[in-house]
Amino acid sequence: MNTQVFLVNWDATYDRVVRAENQLLAAGIKYTVLDSGGAKEPRPNWVNIGDVRFYGQLYEALKRMQGEDYCIFVLGDAGFDQIGPFVSRVVECGSIYNMGVFAPHYSHSPWGPAQTTLESIPGSNSLVIASQTDGIATAFHKDVYTVLLNYMAYLDSQVGIVNLRTGWGMDYIWCAISVLLGKYIIRDTQMIAQHPQGSSYDHGEAAHEMNLVMSTYSQWSELPEQVGYIYNQAQRKMSQDPAVTTKSLYGNADLFINTKELVYHIIRISDDRSYLVDKALSVLGNKWLPITAVNGYDKTSRSEFETLNPNVKSLLFKDGEFGCFASHYMFWKYVVDNNIEQAVVLEDDADVQNNFPFMYQQALSLLPPTYEVFSMYVDKNQYGRFNESLRVNNYIARGYQDWSTLSYVVSLKGAKKLIEIVERNGMDQPVDWFIFRNGHDGNLEVYTWTPSVAPPVIIDNSTPPQIKR
To answer: With contact defined as beta carbons under 8 Å apart, do 180 and 128 qualify?
Structure first.
């Protein structure tokens, strides 16, 4: 994921832009400063673009893009204490979501959370799908900025961008392009940039130019009805119309760039939990793996398992623990025998939430490619075991928990590793301890959610557990 950052400078923003530039330099982030006046001396990576305003500054930035994944365009008065986290958030979200446009929120903006938020993104504390961005600090996906550049070239040929002195309306246009491309507008409600109140331009002139550039885009796009509809949806949402929703604006756009098939197995012990199995099937679909669970209380079933798996040493003393471990082992064997890239296991007390497929895709997008096990569930009573050295990113951490195989993803490599450890050391402890403690000891690459993430599956306690320890 690569980006190009453009900082826009004018006489009133020089000190703030220099501070942001130094932060980008320290972070090793590629940037260019577009200087519309105010530079006190020549500076590397500064380009004097003359006395042009927002439209011309944006046009200049887009013309300088060289195929990077995201163009990040930041006005000098954007008001970030630290610009690095904004750039990092663009990279993080761009790697997960089908994101066309990204922006934070700002003080003194008409496009606040109440006026733009359509819905929260599952599993995130602050990311939302939005209807508008404002134009103070914005990131554009390559597909969006390519279309935007072509439009601005047309606009320049018609009216001369240098003659436009304000900047209103461009946020409507890039948001419309994103929606037409089936890409989401995403904002971070907890990232608030302190933008100064008021403006130095004439609002009547700005409204005139906004009507000009928006109507010109509607004609140029050859989809005037669709563009008009998107404009209208944003305006209605600004009035907090509850009828404006993600569905009404985006239709059936796919939130993910790369989706992976979700295949899973349910280890079913208690018939009393059949309603949870039915719920899992309804949420996850029917791509499930019909593997027979091992009944540790049944001597015949136990004997058959040991006959089929002579290399496995059965060292557990409790029948329930044996049956549970053996069932997980059979799942790993199935994954390996059928060469499945990754699969999910659910125990039958797993209450699958509707956002499970979403969170599964999110986890796979964020996990290191070398992962072997990823736990989809971590209980709150385990959060005290977490420390910052285990954090991989905002969502993923190295496995810190010590119990619960309620639901986890295993990779093909991980299934092979688990089988190898069992055949070498035996079933020498309950399966959850076996997985997580091998992770703690460095024998297995295990990950889970950070404590800030609400897992997409919870334990159902309405039926007594079948396995006693």
So the answer is: no
Give me 224's structure tokens: 């005037």
pLDDT per position as a tens digit, 91-115: 888 877 889 999 999 988 888 999 9
Where residue 25 falls among pLDDT bands split at 50, 70, 90?
A: very high
Q: Which residue has the higher pLDDT, 4 or 322?
A: 4
Residues 6 or more apart in contact with residue 296 via CB below 8 angstroms: 302, 318, 319, 320, 321, 322, 323, 324, 326
Residue recorded with tokens 């948001």: 175
9, 38 contact by CB (below 8 A): yes
pLDDT at 313: 76
- CA 99 – CA 132 distance, rounded (Å): 13
Half-sphere exposure of 396 (CA within 13 A, CB side): 22
Maximum C-alpha span of the chain: 87
Q: Is 252 helix (H, G, I), strand (E, B) or coil?
A: coil
**What 3-state class would DSSP assign to 259?**
coil
Distances (CA, A) of 189 to 103, 114, 271: 9, 10, 44
CA 80 – CA 86 distance, rounded (Å)? 8
Whether 33 has a pLDDT exceeding 80, the answer reads yes
**pLDDT over threshold 60, residue 64:** yes
Lowest-pLDDT choice from 48-62, 202-216, 259-273, 330-344 = 259-273
Q: Does 3-250 carry CATH code 3.90.550?
A: yes
What distance in Å separates the CA atoms of residue 345 and residue 331, rounded to the nearest whole number? 8
Please work out, in degrees rounded to the nearest 5, the angle formed at the alpha carbon of residue 193 by the alpha carbons of 55 and 172: 35
Rounded to 10 degrees, the C-alpha dihedral 349/354/356/359 comes to: -150
pLDDT at residue 258 is higher than 50: no
Q: How far apart are CA 334 and CA 347, in angstroms?
A: 16
Same topology between domain 3-250 and domain 264-459: yes
Q: How many CA atoms lie within 13 A of 33 on its CB side?
A: 26
Res 426: pLDDT: 83
| Second-level CATH architecture of 264-459 | Alpha-Beta Complex (3.90)
In angstroms, the first-to-last Cα distance of the chain is 47
Q: Quick one: tokens of 415? A: 């299934």
Domain map of the chain by residue range? 3-250, 264-459
Whole-prediction pTM value? 0.64
